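As a warm-up, study this chain.
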Amino acid sequence: MREVAFIKQNKEKWLGIEQVVSGKVKKNPDDLSSLYINLVNDLSFAQTYYPKSKTTVYLNHLSGLVFQKIYKTRRIERNRLLFFYKTEVPLLIHRYWRYLLYAFAFFILFTLIGALSAYYDKEFVKIILGEDYVNRTIENIKNGNAVGVYQQGSDWGSAVAIIFNNLRVGAVLFLYGVFGGVGTLFVLLQNCIMLGSFQYFFHEHGALQESAKGIWMHGVFEIFSMVVEAMAGLILGAAILFPKTFSRLDSFKLGFRDAFKIFLSTVPFTIIAGIIEGFLTRYALQMSGVLNSVIIFGTLGIIGFYYFVYPFIVSKRSERYHAVLSEERFRGAH
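Now compare it with the structure written out below.
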């Protein structure tokens, strides 16, 4: 069958499935399963006869959306919050995987810009961080206390203020995606330039290692979360700019929903980062090197596994569930 005829034959069915995905039409779990199996059959046909076609890409994307709706109706997971973090978010991360890579690429680029700017312009750090802050930090370094800036204020007061500030930054990174993703990149640029120039500043004064012991205790969760929040903003921007077969409004709704869930996934990490910064970072230089390394690399392992490894594990598991579901429906039909 020619591709044009294949599209014409199934167009109305696919548009109807889009209505289900967008929530305009409600279906029970059994009907959703039937739709999914039917759609997978179309996808298999397209992959066989039109492997490089946009039709195949479209059907693959649509089948992923339908599957997520099916997976969310499963009654095995009674704890909604557990299901959210254990299954729903990892599946979203897997679906939008390339946006996480984009966010990390921009993060690395912008941070290098900050470091290089500090390298070539000795006044740049003062412009970015403030002259008073820079002078106080230089004095702390001379006194052998590179993380002295983190020892101000009370434990709880510092932690609460830091948590709310970081949540605000994360929300801005996500919400500014409505400007086609440009707003997100601008906010990410500001924060990364600050980070890059900040780290180079310590390097220039021979205190990079000491500062890293304190900064990265909380910085792993904080910075990694910032990158994931930027990912959410890029998803939102792409949903507006590239609606594909959906109307721009429906694409925005779907993109906002998915991006918001990804943003929410970073909240626990942001809160823990604030607690670490408020209670532990101030004691980083008095802490044993082993304990310091355990905290830094332990947090890196946890968040790295959750966003880089676990989504693929959940996706593989969901594919096996697909296969079982399809087989059961096939047997039931015969």
